[in-house]
Design brief:
Layout: H1 2-28, H2 38-41, E1 55-56, E2 59-60, H3 80-99, H4 108-124, H5 130-146, H6 154-166, H7 174-189, H8 195-220, H9 235-245, H10 250-266, H11 273-289, H12 299-324, H13 326-360, H14 362-365, H15 368-374, E3 377-378, H16 387-393, E4 397-399, E5 403-404, E6 414-415, E7 430-434, H17 435-440, H18 442-450, E8 454-461, E9 467-473
Helix pairs in contact: 1-3, 1-4, 1-13, 3-4, 3-5, 4-12, 4-13, 5-12, 6-8, 7-8, 7-11, 11-12, 12-13
């Protein structure tokens, strides 16, 4: 009874934390982030995302944000709120799927709450494709757990195949996860796999090979460039920097020797658990090689680590219950409470910081969905030579604001961003210089003002030492 009651309390707390985080996703999530104005080109305009949008320049992820395309089919789907609700739904789905990971004990729920706090930043910045990658990997693990029993319906098998063939096209390194996962299972369990499991892992290998083949055809043979984030940063220096900005990654370092010693003592391979464990390090290594350092790239590693961590937690909980009986159960619950508290508190802090960012960046993207509903919309384009052509092709545009990212490129240097100002419909275009570009191109701006090419309309000052000068183009 004590064990049952404790489990009930733990699940209630977990549910409250999940609901709390989901609420803050809808309330505080950012419409877009940095230089990724994905929705402003696509679903905020009521236009579906093209499969070719993220193909080229070393990238081959045609399904990068394809999951949001259904929003254009529903009423008010172009609004920011619709996007926030969809991302919150993905977060809730991930929260539920975590509970489906097999493992004894309920202390694992505390670990899941910590993971959700880590993942929260992905879902608060809805542009990150990791929001769907996390769900995909969890769903794959849960489905694979069920393949141990050879009683899956044809529909379940078909859904699994569709999932596995979809996964690589949402983030390139995922093909390596599939390949590593399947090969690990075949190496350690080739004699013990049932027919459904063999089929499942063959499908993973085929999916990875097909993706790699298409990547070679579309990217390598086309003479396209490699996608590397920090070419100037040495490999080892990048690894050190990544661990510095994302301390949670040390969990990967700690668990590797733990599993090595564990395997040396028991000489036992754990199905799916170890395959996911090995895949986590393959995924992490791929981003080290690409010199990617931003934390959100590495969040899927923790999904793949979760089965092994749950396994370890279950072992520890069993020991405590065996040693101390009812006292062990109480001890488990007591140990979980601080973790729940820390996760909830830090999640609130992350959400609060994001709210400041959302407020700060309001002039750029917060009201985009409302504009699109009224047909009162800003157009965004990165090719200056086609600005007028694109403007004429989109009838709903009656405001036109431009952001000159590289003035030395003149007409071809436009990158258009949203500005929530009082631009009149007859205004052809405006250029917004941030403080950084204003200082960098001071001479250029002064020269163009003297020539009568630019006219200062007003300056916008924000907190956090950020300000913008708005110029009309004559």
């Amino acid at each position: 009874m004590l064990n049952k009651y404790s489990s009930y309390v733990v699940y209630v707390i977990y549910g409250l934390i999940v609901s709390f985080f989901a609420y803050y996703i809808v309330k505080n999530a950012a419409w877009c982030s940095c230089d990724d104005y994905e929705w402003l080109y696509t679903t905020a305009l009521g236009q579906p995302e093209s499969l070719m949008r993220h193909v080229g320049k070393g990238r081959f992820i045609p399904c990068n944000h394809f999951d949001t395309n259904f929003l254009v089919l529903i009423p008010h789907g172009e609004s920011p709120l619709a996007h926030y609700i969809w991302v919150a739904f993905l977060f809730l789905t991930a929260s539920f799927l975590f509970l489906k990971i097999k493992g004894s004990g309920f202390v694992k729920i505390a670990f899941f709450s910590w993971l959700l706090y880590q993942f929260l930043q992905v879902y608060l910045n809805i542009i990150f494709p990791e929001k769907i990658v996390i769900v995909e990997l969890l769903l794959m693990i849960v489905m694979l757990q069920g393949f141990h029993k050879e009683n899956k319906s044809p529909l379940q098998i078909v859904l699994y195949c569709l999932l596995v063939f979809y996964i690589p096209y949402t983030k390139e390194p995922l093909f390596g996860v599939l390949l590593t996962f399947a090969i690990t299972e075949f190496l350690f369990r080739r004699k013990n796999l049932n027919k459904q499991e063999k089929m499942a892992y063959i499908v993973m290998i085929v999916s990875a090979v097909v993706f790699l083949s298409l990547y070679v055809v579309f990217i390598q043979f086309s003479g396209d460039t490699e996608y590397v984030e920090q070419e100037y940063n040495p490999f080892l220096s990048n690894i050190v920097f990544t661990f510095k900005v994302f301390p949670a990654l040390w969990l990967m370092v700690i668990l590797l020797p733990v599993r090595a010693v564990h395997y040396y003592i028991e000489r036992k391979y754990y199905p799916i658990v170890d395959a996911a464990f090995v895949s986590a390090y393959a995924y992490m290594s791929s981003y080290f090689i690409l010199t990617f350092w931003r934390p959100y790239y590495y969040y899927p590693c923790f999904v793949l680590l979760a089965p092994y961590v749950v396994f370890l937690i279950g072992k520890v909980e069993e020991k405590l219950k065996g040693w101390f009986g009812k006292g062990g159960i109480i001890a488990c619950v007591v140990c979980m409470l601080p973790i729940f508290y820390i996760s909830a508190k830090r999640g609130w802090v992350v959400a609060s910081i994001n709210q400041e960012c959302r407020t700060f960046f309001t002039p750029f993207y917060k009201e985009m969905g409302e504009y699109s509903k009224r047909g009162d919309i800003y157009y965004f384009n990165v090719d200056g030579d086609k600005d007028k052509e694109a403007k004429n092709n989109l009838r709903q545009i009656n405001r036109y604001v431009s952001y000159w990212l590289h003035p030395e490129y003149k007409a071809s240097g436009f990158e258009l961003k949203m500005l929530n100002d009082s631009v009149m419909p007859q205004t052809e275009s405006r250029i917004i210089f941030s403080g950084y570009y204003r200082n960098k191109y001071k001479d250029f701006i002064v020269e163009r003002i003297k020539d009568g090419y630019l006219k200062l309309v007003y300056s916008v000052d924000f907190d956090m030492n950020a300000n913008f000068d708005v110029y009309e183009v004559k």
